[in-house]
Amino acid sequence: MINIIGGIKKRTKILVSPNNVRPTSIQKRKSIFSIIESYGIKNNLKIYEQANILDLFAGSGALGLEALSRGAIFGYFFDNNVDVILYLKKNCLRICKKNNFKIINENIFESKFNKINKKISLVFIDPPYRINSFEKILNNINKSKILSRNAILVIECSINSKIKIPNYFSCFNERNYGKTKIFYLINKVD
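and the corresponding structure tokens:
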């Protein structure tokens, strides 16, 4: 089990499936949310106010649930492992109100994101480290028109990953943590 580290559900434990899940560590989550919040302050963005989040390769849901605990109003969680989704649903029920989350069992690489009917302002992309098809995911997100202007995207990947950032996103920060690299992108189009 791991804990939510901030917001109204701080210290609430969430479950982690023993199958193919690598939850983001507490230190990395602290850093991610500190960088997001700092960027918001510097750019006069209200990161969580009226925010809808998208958590891709959700696993335990730690990143998306952390954002909901901090004030985001709705979360979409994508995963396609049935066992992992059982744990994710239990975690969502612990952290969320019954009507402010949706779990979508779908292949993220093929998704057109047509089950999303709210503008997204914060996206977490945290696939297994062996996966390196970020450009396809970013292109599909852009084509779907689900992002609000200035939406923030956080990509967690292997330190060895090379990501070609499409020109409709701008990278405002990049950090390395041991075997992990984290990119912070901003959406430049409506």
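(Above: one complete record from the training split.) The chain has a mean pLDDT of 93.
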